[in-house]
Task: inverse folding
């Protein structure tokens, strides 16, 4: 336990020392929020069932942060650690692999949470964002979304040999997904054909779930999302345990 | 006399696909000794050491390290051994003190890392990122990490590769210090000079097999190679003195430059024989130096090849 706490603390510092990772998790979503907030404000709009741009963007950008940390941050860190022999060095000590991976998950989770909290604070203070959900329910949806995406990230990082490839693969998977899933950009504005494609993207289910819970919808309306994300999580953990390599 | 076995290897064999890395390797390492595995790149040193560390699974052979099976009892082994790997790292932006503090938390009863920091001369670097350290400083940090468990046995794989001679000598002193604390050291190197100057005993590997195993001195002695004394005279060599001198060894004269080839007689070394002959006959000389056979020559005579080819 002592070593998990210490490792988590050091990994958190390392995360914040990497300017690019910290920027995309903590700063970039705020920039997007202020950009679209300045353009559209947060007036209720018929496009969004009577909610404003900011009301629907905060949960969507939260999904964006989850995808960024899970598919890029985690994958690059793990691929770098494997490529440079950081994992190899750890393997020579009595520390268990579970501790090493848990520290990563905890740090990325906390950073993602911090990213969401910053969005909420900015949305509330600057744009008077509406929040009609149940806090516990939203947090539960957030945790499920994070873990299922981190599991996906661990699978990717086991398949990818180098940090450089990880960067490319992460971007190639992430960017189209951000636009097509409604995370970077409200899905209401997408044409019908694109909406059909989005049904195949895991991030779509995170966006739907968080946006729904945000405005107070019940989990009963989101059983599909619950099922898909849970399957992703379970399958992801099983596969990544199977695939995990120290070097 | 301490004759406790710390490592026992019997008939180790390991292949990677069709490539045989190590075959029929057997040796023992005794408590408190600095034991070296030497040989050119690809001789099987790293494979052997990594099998002992429990990082690789041998195809055949019986290994005991601190009385443990490296595969079955790896957790226990890792608590009691310090390991420096040939290829490994810590995150670039981890600070020196953070690495030590973190790694110390992995062990039940770690050494005091503040003391290690001072001992290894890294105190001024404690707040520096790993990426800012020089090659020698990185190696010293890895030694510190390997010493953190306060281990009975420490593995050092290619410890000084890529270091300049000054840093290399500083690292040798550190290894001797570790041994002085009663710890056993198993190291690999492809520098014959390092093995010769640092190790109590060496095993020479070539193409995955043991070609020699003994103290460096015995290996050199068994080679039967001659020592060579070279000096310059101020005057030409008189026939009488040449005759006297030839009792010490074979003489080769090139003008004023004299070379004496021979092996030591009785207890005195060839140098003292030659020097005492020169002084007792009042022959003035300058620029005297000796050339002695090295482990490099041992390797050459055993394999017919030079180390660095």
Result:
């Amino acid at each position: 336990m002592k070593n998990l706490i210490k490792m988590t603390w050091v990994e958190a510092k390392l995360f914040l020392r990497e300017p690019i990772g910290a920027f995309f998790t903590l700063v970039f979503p705020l920039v997007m929020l202020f950009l679209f907030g300045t353009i559209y404000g947060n007036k209720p709009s018929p496009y969004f069932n009577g909610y404003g741009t900011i009301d629907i963007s905060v949960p969507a950008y939260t999904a964006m942060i989850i995808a960024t940390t899970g598919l890029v941050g985690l994958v690059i860190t793990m691929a770098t650690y494997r490529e440079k022999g950081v994992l190899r060095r750890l393997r020579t000590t009595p520390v268990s692999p579970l501790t090493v991976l848990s520290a990563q998950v905890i740090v990325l989770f906390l950073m993602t949470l911090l990213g969401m909290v910053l969005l909420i604070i900015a949305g509330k203070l600057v744009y008077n964002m509406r929040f009609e959900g149940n806090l516990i329910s939203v947090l539960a949806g957030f945790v499920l979304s994070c873990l299922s995406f981190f599991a996906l990230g661990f699978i990717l990082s086991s398949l990818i040999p180098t940090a450089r490839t990880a960067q490319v693969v992460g971007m190639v998977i992430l960017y189209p997904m951000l636009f097509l899933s409604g995370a970077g950009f409200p899905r209401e504005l997408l044409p019908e054909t694109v909406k059909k494609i989005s049904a195949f993207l895991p991030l779509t289910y995170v966006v739907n779930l968080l946006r729904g819970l945000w405005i107070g919808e019940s989990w009963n309306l989101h059983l599909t999302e619950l099922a898909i994300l849970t399957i992703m999580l379970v399958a992801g953990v099983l596969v990544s345990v199977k695939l995990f390599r120290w070097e | 006399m301490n004759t406790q076995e710390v490592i026992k290897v019997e008939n180790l064999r390991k292949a990677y696909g069709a490539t045989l890395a190590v075959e029929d390797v057997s040796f023992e390492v005794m408590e408190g000794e600095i034991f070296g595995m030497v040989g050119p790149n690809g001789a099987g040193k790293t494979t052997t050491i990594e099998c002992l560390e429990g990082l690789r699974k041998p195809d055949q052979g019986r290994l005991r390290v601190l009385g443990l099976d490296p595969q079955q009892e790896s957790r226990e082994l890792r608590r009691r051994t310090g390991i420096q790997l040939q290829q490994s790292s810590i995150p670039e932006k981890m600070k020196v003190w953070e690495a030590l503090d973190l790694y110390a938390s992995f062990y039940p009863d770690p050494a005091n890392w503040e003391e290690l920091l001072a001992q290894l001369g890294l105190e001024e670097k404690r707040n520096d990122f790993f990426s800012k350290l020089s090659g020698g400083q990185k190696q010293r940090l890895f030694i510190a990490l390997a010493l953190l468990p306060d281990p009975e046995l420490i593995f050092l794989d290619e410890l000084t590769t890529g270091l300049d001679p000054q840093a290399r000598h500083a690292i040798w002193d550190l290894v001797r210090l570790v041994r002085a604390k009663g710890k056993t050291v198993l190291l690999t190197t492809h520098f014959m000079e390092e093995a010769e100057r640092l190790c109590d005993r060496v095993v020479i590997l070539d193409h995955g097999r043991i070609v020699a195993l003994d103290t460096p001195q015995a290996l050199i002695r068994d080679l039967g190679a001659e020592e060579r004394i070279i000096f310059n005279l101020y005057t030409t060599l008189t026939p009488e003195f040449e005759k006297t001198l030839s009792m010490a060894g074979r003489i080769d004269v090139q003008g004023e430059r004299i070379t004496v080839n021979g092996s030591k007689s009785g207890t005195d070394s060839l140098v003292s024989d030659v020097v005492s002959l020169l002084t007792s006959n009042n022959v003035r000389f300058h620029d005297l130096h000796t050339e002695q056979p090295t482990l490099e020559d041992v390797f050459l005579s055993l394999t017919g090849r030079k180390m660095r080819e």
User: Anything to note?
Assistant: Residues 2-243 of chain A form one domain. The interface with chain B takes residues 2-3, 6-7, 10, 13-14, 17-18, 80-81, 84-86, 88-89, 91-95 of chain A (CB under 8 Å). Chain A has a mean pLDDT of 91.
